[in-house]
Amino acid sequence: VKKTSPIPVAQYGGRHQVTMLPGSGIGPELMNYVQEVFKYSGAPVDFQVVDIDPKSDQANELEDAIISIKRNGVGIKGNIETRSESTGVRSRNVAIRNELDLFVNVLHCQSYPGVPAKQKDIDIMVIRQNTEGEYAMLEHESVSGVVESMKVVTQENSERVARWAFEFAKKNDRKKVTTIHKANIMKLSDGLFLEINRKIAKEYPEIEHNDMIIDNCCMQLVSKPHQFDVMIMTNLYGTIVSNVVCGLVGGAGLLSGRNYGDHYAIFEPGTRNTGTAIAGKNIANPVAMLNASVDMLEHLGHKAHANLIKSAIRKTICEDKVHTPDLGGTNKSTEVVQRIIDHILEADVRVW
Length: 352
Ligand code: ADP
Ligand code: MG
Known about the structure:
Distance between the termini: 35 Å
Number of strands: 12
Largest sheet: 10 strands, mixed
Bound molecules: adenosine-5'-diphosphate, magnesium ion
Order of helices and strands: EHEHEHEEEEHEHEHEHEEHHH
Helix content: 25-40%
């Protein structure tokens, strides 16, 4: 099995350079918090910041971003809005994932004790095909009033993502993989995805494999979520299920998501929201983006710095209960960040 997203070689002094795409809405303020927390934790990472204007339909900013990630191997990003009037402009978020062939998205949905949530003790891995399916962006109006949209499922990408899921389950001692689909209706596309999942599952006899229709899956997630361990699905079901499971453990402000391909990796908040309505008000929850930065440090092999920040986040939200309004609290974003920095400075471990 080929190694997905190889770790870039560190530069002089063991430092890494990483591409930072702040994006729109709350993205830029969340990135400032990441930079602050990295400064106090001594994380050996330098950021190359590439801004993308939501109103522009120029390709050059997008190209700069892609070149930068190709050079650095790793990126951290907020959601990039596309507000151009012309319908010909495709989503830059999708373009980046496709251009870098980031074929798998991984969301580890784990409850934080002490954070108000609909369900307790959740520990679900949502693994999602990240570059095709309904996100092929092949839509056209065939005759006036009739729009057709293509859902693309390929054997190659279905195999890659299924392999990734089962390898992950094996390495992390997970017991069960559930394939989510609608193969009873989309017999060819979802049928192929399911068939390939069943084929790959046979190579992992120690891991239980089952499958579930997407509509039943949504109901089961809300009523009996503890039956799920590792879940694997195509792109659109993936975004919906990710949002459901994030909602179960405390909303859009907590969890991070990881995008991997054979060459590059991008880290971002799990539900990929722009947060336009809450931007600039000092109320956005900084935790999801900080968790993305922890994932990035782990990926780069900076384990000690990752653990330092991770444990400061846990103390802040689980013990001190310094919570922004999305978690039912009254704290400002900056108060959460300050408390996290306080815990970093208090830690006995000095990692630099
Ligand atoms: P998008 O603009 O991508 O459609 P929204 O901004 O509508 O997404 O986000 C969906 C919901 O999640 C909104 O209610 C938003 O306030 C909330 N949300 C997203 N990110 C955060 C965050 N970091 N902290 C608090 N709330 C958030
Ligand atoms: Mg939206």
